[in-house]
Amino acid sequence: MIELTNIRKGFPGNSRAIDNLSFTVPDGKIVGFLGPNGAGKSTTIKMITGILPIDEGSITLNGYNINHHPIEAKKLFGYVPDQPDMFLRLRGIEYLNFIGDIYEVPEQLRQQRIEKLTKQFQIDKSLHDYILNYSHGMRQKIIISGVLLHEPAIWILDEPLTGLDPKSAYVLKDLMRQHADKGNTVFFSSHGLEVVEQICDVVAIINNGELLFYGDMDQLHKEYQTDQSLENVFLELTNDE
Ligand SMILES: Nc1ncnc2c1ncn2[C@@H]1O[C@H](COP(=O)(O)OP(=O)(O)OP(=O)(O)O)[C@@H](O)[C@H]1O
What we know:
The structure is a single chain. The chain is α/β, with parallel strands linked by helices. It has one domain: 3-Layer(aba) Sandwich (Rossmann fold), CATH 3.40.50.300. It has nine helices and ten strands. The strands form two sheets. A six-stranded mixed sheet has the order 6-7-8-3-9-10, sandwiched between helices. It has a four-stranded antiparallel sheet with strand order 2-1-4-5, covered by helices on one side. α6 links the parallel β7 and β8. α3 (92-102) runs parallel beside α5 and α4 (107-120) runs antiparallel to α5. The protein is globular. Bound molecules: adenosine-5'-triphosphate. Residues 11, 14, 17, 35, 37-43 line the site of adenosine-5'-triphosphate. This is ABC-type transporter ATP-binding protein EcsA. Keywords: ATP-binding, Nucleotide-binding, Transport. GO terms for molecular function: ATP binding; ATP hydrolysis activity. Residues 2-233 form the ABC transporter domain.
């Protein structure tokens, strides 16, 4: 479970990038995080993962405060950033073994998982190539495989489906469902409203750093006329004019 309580974050020139944001990502549900460009999704995710400091408020992951207990909190989650251009000088297999070492995944289990994941995502043939030579989608898939390799309880995915081919997107959506169904936490941001409507149990919509809606699809339809699609509600909520 991820709990955000009264989070504030400012940048030079934007003192309220995140403004008193509170919500919970419960176990056993897929929670979609929506908002227009610049709404504050990545900033929020970077605070949850301890990459950006929080100005005010607190964030806990399964009870561990990311500021006060960063190591314990960081052991619990896997994070897929919106930009997968990392570790470019490593070969795919070197990256996965590096992750396996950091998270102490036993050798035999590691081999099994690497084989299964990279076959599912169809990057098994490229594991001995440098990540530098991977396409955007392949880079994303190697990062996702690294996250899934150590089977963290909490998945935090920043636009994970952008740029994935249909088969890989299907595989990832299926894995997200399975992970949530086992009682784990799945939190992901997306611009794909159809995907969110298709797989999320709960949606959180923000704009200008503020939470505009949090609830499941039933609540959304009750609050905003039963026949409205998520797209219409999103456009209505995030219309600044
Ligand atoms: N390092 C930074 N320095 C200054 N301002 C920043 C920085 N990072 C984010 N911001 C600002 O904070 C606000 C939220 O940005 P953020 O990247 O979190 O949005 P987002 O919802 O992830 O957008 P997108 O959908 O385009 O990825 C924006 O106004 C952005 O300009």
